[in-house]
Design a protein that fits this description.
The complex is a heterodimer of chains A (971) and B (435). Chain A has 971 residues and is mainly α. Chain A starts with a helix and ends with a helix. With 435 residues, chain B is mainly alpha-helical. In chain B, the strands form two sheets. In chain B, strands 3-5-4 form a three-stranded antiparallel sheet. In chain B, helix 5 (69-96) crosses helix 8 and helix 10 packs antiparallel against helix 11 (180-196). Classes of the chains: A mainly alpha (971), B mainly alpha (435).
Amino acid sequence: MASRFWTQQQSDSESEEEEEIEEEEEELETRPDPREGAAAGSKYLSANLSDSDESDDQRRVVRSAKDKRFDEMGTIVEQMKNYMKINDWVSLQESFEKLNKQLEKVIRVTESEKAPRVYIKALVMLEDFLVQALANKDAKKKMSSSNAKSLNYMKQKLKKNNKLYEAEIELYRQKPESEEDSDNDEEDEEGMESEVDYSDEEPGNIAAGYSGSEDEEEEEDEEGWEKKRSKKDKLMDKQFMRDPSEITWEMVDKKVKEIIAARGRKGTDRTEQVEQLTYLTRVAKTPAQKLEVLMHVVSAQFDVTPNLNTHLPVAVWKKSVQNILSILDILSQYRNIEVDERVEPESDTETQKGADYEGPIYVRGNIVAFLERIDDELFKSLQCIDPHTKEYVERMRDEPLFMTLAQNVQDYVQRIGDKSATARVALRRVEHVYYKPQEVYEAMRKLAEAQTSNVAEEDELPTEVDEGESGEDGKVIEIKARESKAPPSFVVIPEIVPRRPTFPDLSRVLMDQLVSTIYKYGDERTRARAMLCDIYHHAISEEFHTARDLLLMSHLQENVQVMDISTQILFNRTMAQLGLCAFRAALINEAHGCLSELYAGGRIKELLAQGVSQSRYHEKTPEQEKLERRRQMPFHMHINLELLEAVHLICAMLLEVPNMAANAHDIKRKVISKTFRRLLDINERQTFLGPPENVRDHMMVATRSLSNGNWQKAVEVVQSLDVWKLIPRREFVLDMLKSKIQEEGLRTYLFTYSSYYDALSLDQLMTIFELEEAQVHSIISKMMIAEELHASWDQPTRCIVTHNVEPTRLQALASQYAEKLTVLVEGNEKAFDARTGGGLEGISSMRRKEGQDYAGAASGRRQNEYTGRQNYREFGNAGNRSGFTGGRGAGGQTRGGFYRDQRSGQANSRNNSSYTAGYQSTRYQDAYSSVGRTTYQGLSSAGASRNAQPDAAGRMVNLAQGGLTRSSGRF
Amino acid sequence: MAQYDLTLTIAPYLDRHLVFPLLEFLQEKQLYTDDHILKAKIDLLAKTNMVDYAVDIYKSLYHTEYPLQEMLDRRTEVMDRLKYLEELAAPLVSFLQNPALVQELRPDKQYNLQMLHDRFQIRSEQIEALYQFAKFQFECGNYSGAGDFLYQYRTLCTNVDRSFSALWGKLAAEILMQNWDVAVEELNRLKETIDSRPDPPLTQLKNRTWLMHWSLFIFFNHENGRNGIIDLFFQEKYLNAIQTNAPHLLRYFATAIIINKRRRNMLKELIKVIQQEHYTYKDPITEFLECLYVDYDFEGAQQKLRECEELIVNDFFLGKQVQENGYLTMPLRDEFLENARLFIFETYCRIHQCIDIGILSQKLNMTYGDAERWIVNLIRNARLDAKIDSKMGTVVMGTQHTNVYEQIIEKTKQLAVRSYVLASNVSPASATIQA
């Protein structure tokens, strides 16, 4: 766009700001902007008005915005006229620039790449005036220097600019008066017309082929156009109006080429192109030609949408689906026709070969690409449509249609043996199924059945007629002229491919079919995505272990940082769902492990592509924002964020509260969930606490009562959240929650108060926490073994006798102090080593021995921490550990270095790799400080820290190999 | 008890001939009806060449004198083939049966082949025939012959895959002949071969799984097998194979660790694995460990222990009976119970300060007197820091907590020395730098 270029030359920041404001307004931002001034006030008002209406009728919003833009443009043109009168080139130049800017906005609103007539008119006017001014040499001489400069400037600019709109200007010059000021309406009318046209054609109707009634309408349509059409168009139409029987292959071929050549040029009316081509499909002479033309129709239909941000109109979308289906019909009837992208159109007469031609016929094209485009458009339209409208629901009903198409395409590519294409198509299908729980899937299946049965009823008559006529060999050239004036189709293709999707009863079955196909044939990305979808689906069908094993075996965690963003988003979604699944299965640790990483950056919305979160620290450029918007998930695929947050915070609470109680003396020691700690800090700092309102508040209240030993209140608060209605097996989950809170309450209680008791009675604890004896016994025994609780049972009296070895505050400090001293000495020694390069024999060997002792102790201690909790294989540890290392601060860092040095013998490579990974991830952050990408850094660093754990590293490596073998088994 | 029977799970990983002893064992234990097992045996033999045996079983199963015609057909077929292969391999066999000639073979395979070809007109086809012959012998149940031939075949064979199969065959033959020492050697050789072969991971995994199953025969019979099984299964690759392919092997792994006092340190790792695989596999033995070390549920552990006993008796590998002084004993079961009891007791002591001997004896499945004696023995052997209060009938544990002061002193003691050394090192170092 040339105008873009101008604006940049001028004042970048200003124009961008302005744009941003505009965009914000469109986004229903309702805060008035002071910069806009008085004029903007009304604008704001009108925008606001339409906003409120929006839920009723989306169209009107667009209309009003459009009008507004056109008005503005008109004003500028008026101004320019005035400047021309006074021959003020300086102002004229300014206005011209403004006009170009305005054009951009208009185009954005009207969603077409074509410049509006007003603009063209202004250009023509300017051009004329310029010529006039240049011709008048006297006047030119008289001009002030600045004016003359502007004139020259304008001369160049205009020349450049007008080149882009040559066609339009030409058109305008030819017929200035008829187009006067009606461009807007015309466009709309046309749109409406086609709308009427399309809306009549229910998917099934088109299936009926080119039956009478439709053709008739079509004909009327054409008549309708004629009135408005320019001479040139009329000329073209004459050709169309010829008796179909006169049309030869060459004519069609020539015409197609002509239309194709015009494609993409400025000023070609895209919808019209579609119409013309559609007509040509009817008069095509051979199946191959028909196929070729149909291909062109579909691509022309895709062209209807002007840019990447807007979606294909629904009607056009449906029509293209039907067209592709007919393509498939042809392909399945004439097996000798091959569609391939790579074939060189060696002979132009390839498609001349008739239906009875034996050998292979090659047609250029790529059906899979069509399918992918169709899918993208469906996705995009779901992104754009407001999810709370009926329109959205209607749109979602088109999914079965897509599934039908995809299924047929898959059958086709499978038949021709294109394996990678099969995998691609299968993936598209998977992506429509994976997020659906069985109930939703069931609903879709029923809908598909209902739709097809309806259509079948409606269709019965016409199809029968068709089949009757098509007679022998399924292909007949229709000679009999129909009663209608419409030209009947030359090549009649009966519907061969099924028009209804077949769904197995269980979504799992479908998933398994598709996914195994993909694993067999797909490339790396396709497989990774399929794997993620598979995991996701397992997670929503409550199969946590299967899902987890798949995830671990596939090594997606390690590789995800290098994948494309949409796959990363899918990965995040999968992790979120896995977390929810673990939670439902009462696996708190695992759930926390899955979720904490997502919440670490506080940009959960961005990570899941469910909305844009404003970042305080850096502004996003419009491009970034646009990109991000393009990645958004449609509403029906969203994972409920409140539920997710509630689950995450509950898990964090259950883990963190006893942990805080256990390490009351040095609070920074071991942090399981940093996010949770931060929230708690914020909450504690508040002077006045109102009643809880959102999920977070609720959780904070629950946390406080839990750490005070009041588990009943905690349970009450947590269970009062209304997100629980979204969870399947609600009763079970709530019961599970209650018992978990009771258990953790008991642990917290013991941590906090055991040092104040000499002995605690088992029965008392049972009554306080309403737990079974066995449970209490088990929990306490576990704490004793893990040396979290310094006490032992006194069996005859059923009491816990505490040993009171909990250090006093002074003792705890002393021991911390001693530890720090150790670190200091180690630091000194290391510095000495670095200085002398290797150091003296005595000291280093001694230190080595010492260090190993130390390392042993450290790992031993950590082991203790973990054994009491869970096994290493779970991801839960990742969070813990990163918190752990992070919390230690400076001391931890030196130790890190020390470690690496010390353990160079056995575990060096392991350690090193983890460090470099960490390093890379930070660098990565710098490089991609844009969009959502940074946040994935969290994942990678978590992965790194997982490796850093000496103990767990063994397991991970172990698993990694197991995974290798396992996954290869899968593939 | 049939629910814990693993025969069906294990069988797919074994050779047909190796499954046979398992079926014999099952027949003996009467877990399934005789008919059932006999049918299974016939199925098993159908693909082997032990036709006569199959006929016998058929007769006893259907109480008839006349076996099926197809069985007789198969018999003649087998005999023909045997003759054919025998003839084919005859020159080589006669060569190998002459010790003097065998002496002339050298480690260099190429040389051997050349020599055989030049002097005895034995070509590679005949060597191939030897393999086929050995395999046929094995199928017929002549394990010792097969084992010998395979051994010799390996010295001559140049085909890597064939030699690999020969290794498997040799191992199976040795197992079936119960030559445990040789079998261990073969096992190790096979293991090395598997690790060094450039197979895709999946094949390796499969091979390892097979190997582990076969090794059960050896490890539970060989005297050093108890260490062997732990060493093998605990290797990362093999542990992986267990987790992915054959979690049921955890039963044997767990048993091996429980009865092996010196490998106590591996218990922790094992428990982690058991917990991870809990959702795919569990049996009383793994559950026993879980009860004891995860949930600290002593009642549960006790109950599981009783189930374990039954399970062991009915398990082919674990329930092996040994004749000793005219008594039939089951050494593994006794050891298992003894060790398990000790586990329970140890854990129990760790978290108790004062235990009623009466309850303890119940928990340990002993009489009061026995329990007391047992504890006294433990105390006397300095394995337990405790005292018995015989008036109250309780055991009182001693506590051993290190003092905070001691801890800190321990921590800081070294620091002074280290700083001193450092300082004394620094001064000459800096002196040299300055100089």
